[in-house]
Design goal:
By secondary structure, the chain is an alpha+beta fold. It contains four helices and eleven strands, in the order βαββαβαβββββββα.
Length: about 170
Amino acid sequence: MGKIVKPQRVKLFIGLIFPETTLIPDIKKKLRSKFGNIDFESKILDFNYTGYYEKEFGVNLKRSFLSFSKLILPDKIAAIKNTTNKLEMGLTKGQKRLINLDPGYLNDAKVVLATTKDYAHRIYLKDGIYAENTLVFTQGSFKPYPWTYPDYQTEQYAEIFNQIRNIYMKQRK
């Protein structure tokens, strides 16, 4: 029988997908009030990997990532996903969201995303939220799995998550 140990704290990050940058200062303020200080902000990237969001948000979408200085326990990601869903619903125009917020966490070995969508490679957590192990840290960098979203398979995203991981590793010392 294995000995049960308390899980290590992990690094919370949130991916943002949006059509306009004008909302970003307000959403950062809201995210800070919920999750604490932001300790990493990626540059704004083009998001052209899928047409999934075009009906709701339009074309020429952008993406950025934020990470937060306060480390969390991994089981908090379900509540965080429900919180970001509520934030999204508070930022709507008509029936359409103005921003998509995708929380996840990383540790020294992996990147995990929270989602409301079930699939073969996702594990149910609670309150309608599933977890997906999206990237693995091996041979000095994050690498994708066969099911990893196309944007998360890019070297550009690996660099972002390597930077966030470096912050995390310093925090753990």
